[in-house]
Amino acid sequence: MGTKKTVFTGAAAAIITPFKDGKIDFDAYGKYIDWLIDNNIDAIVTVGTTGEGSTLTDAEHKEAIKFCVNHVAGRVPVIAGTGANDTAYSISLSKYACEVGADAVLLVTPYYNKATQNGLYESFKAIADSIDIPCILYNVPSRTGCNLLPQTVARLAEIENIVGIKEASGNISQIAEVASLCGDKIDIYSGNDDQNLAIFALGGKGCISVLADIMPNAVHQMYESFAKGDIEKSRKIQLDTLSLINALFCEVNPIPVKAACSAMGFCENTLRLPLTPMSKENESKLLSLMRENGIKF
Description:
Blueprint: E1 10-14, E2 19-20, E3 23-24, H1 26-38, E4 43-46, H2 58-72, E5 78-81, H3 87-99, E6 104-108, H4 117-130, E7 135-139, H5 141-144, H6 150-156, E8 162-167, H7 172-182, E9 187-190, H8 196-201, E10 206-209, H9 216-227, H10 231-240, H11 242-248, H12 255-263, H13 280-292
Parallel strand pairs: 1-4, 1-10, 4-5, 5-6, 6-7, 7-8, 8-9, 9-10
Antiparallel strand pairs: 2-3
């Protein structure tokens, strides 16, 4: 196995999908992507959980990936969310992402039907074997009911184009075990904004962030400062934004961040059922914390 390619270091934004009149609002999508890049985002993840990928039709999912890749036009890496609870469908989406020029795919563990650890291995291996671009695994058991264990990650890390994992288990001990078992065979990315600094300290290469949707430069600086040895600055950003991070997850993601992006003028506050707009009480608290953190809207 040769040296694995690192897809990105720093802050990737797990971006929202703007809707208007029941359809994807591509005009808003493009303007939002430009704003993120202008504000130092290091990579973009399209149609993941935050992008409401599970409510998009197959055609919409593909259209969103293609639009994002074309609009970004190589300015930063684009990572397409192509995971599903049906491995064959995930292979189909992943091949499409590869065809239209995505830099990598993000593969969530199969949800609802779950799998054994061997099933997870076989599923991810089948997807990785079907494409020639890098794959980043995504472990988020709170949403999927399925935990990708460190020993399974270590097995998957032997596959050449499985290069990273977005870890959102919330279990720092488990993430440390992944780092210990895999070494430089897999890049670890924080999937929980309140644990970014802790995961950087375990050797994480960055984060795939919801906070970065509204504070891209701050999250970029959190990683950059850490990487340059300015731990104090990185810690200050982590702790100063903690209340805002908590507010962004006080209702199911992406409900709060959609409200935040709407307040900032990036999109309508429209979600697809079963997601509904944020409660007025929680929205008021969120907007107040955004102002405290210097976000202008």
